[in-house]
Design brief:
115 residues, alpha+beta, four-stranded antiparallel beta sheet, 2 helices, 6 strands
């Protein structure tokens, strides 16, 4: 059995400290998750998706009740100006595409209050 020992313990300590500092810097510069900004609900015309949750950049982060794997990750280009009765516009292969179902509800995300 081989035992690994350090002849100078402060070298191991300084290496560990360096790694910890590097992890802290990485955490500080990591992109922060986008917060949920709004939920948009489409008029039900028999399609498999009725609601999308959008983050603050308009990116679809959730889809209900079905087709999440299709819609999550798309960005609603007009997310800042959409209203009830309007249409969500996404880009597919560089081409703007209006989703054919009008919006029947646009709900801002609930405010969260930290204690």
């Amino acid at each position: 059995m081989t035992h690994i020992t350090h002849s100078e313990p402060h070298v191991a300590d300084s290496r560990a400290k360096g790694r910890i500092e590097k992890l802290h810097r990485k955490a500080e510069t990591a992109p922060q998750p986008k917060r949920l900004a709004k939920t948009i609900a489409f008029a039900d015309q028999g399609q498999d998706f009725l609601e999308w949750d959008l983050d603050s950049t308009g990116k679809v982060v959730a889809c209900r009740p079905f087709q999440a794997s299709i819609w999550i990750g798309h960005t609603v280009r007009n997310h800042e100006r959409i209203t009830v009765g309007s249409y969500a516009v996404i880009t597919v292969d560089g081409t703007p595409l209006a989703i054919r179902y009008p919006l029947e509800r646009v709900t801002p995300a609930p405010l969260t209050i930290s204690p």
